[in-house]
What does this fold into?
Amino acid sequence: VQLSTNKYAPVTSLTPFESFIFVNTSADIQFSLRGSENQITPYTAELSSASFYSTAPFTDPILMGSQVYFFDDQRLYIFLGDQISSIQQSMEVSRHCPGYLPKAYGATVIQNAYDTLFMVDASDKRTVYGYTNRYQGDQVLQNAFFKQTFSHDIHSMYSQEESIYRISKDHQDRYSLSVSKFREDDPQVLS
It folds into this structure.
């Protein structure tokens, strides 16, 4: 597959998505790799530019639900794929809170059941940022960012069913495992 752009575009990650592959580069260009009849072969591969955003150099895009999210310095983007008919197939979801997100990211994890993404601040590993995006049909009901501060540095996170597992390290270089239940309260239940 040959790629023609006006600048050198080394590929940093490949993320399978729907019927194609989301290709991220360090040249501020994202591509989609497609094939004919949903088959990507050496004879049918087609690479086309999808969006033009800078991206965080050491943080891979993450698939949550039916979208791909990718990161940059204090920004989070969503790749919409074929959901919009435009040359620009991505958009910034953090536009309403400029400067809120970290400059660099550590561990990332998704809680698919609740459409929530968690990311550790690489410069302050005690701080974990969250992003929730809720849909009803094709309309966005909620687009919210939040953060939590823990007493120890978070080095790794893992999501299993309704729990988030964290491996943290304290000031004496001791590692520990902690778990947080992630669930929603029924809005119909009155307290």
Observations:
- The chain has a mean pLDDT of 83.
- The two ends are 59 Å apart (CA to CA).
- The chain has no helices and 15 strands.
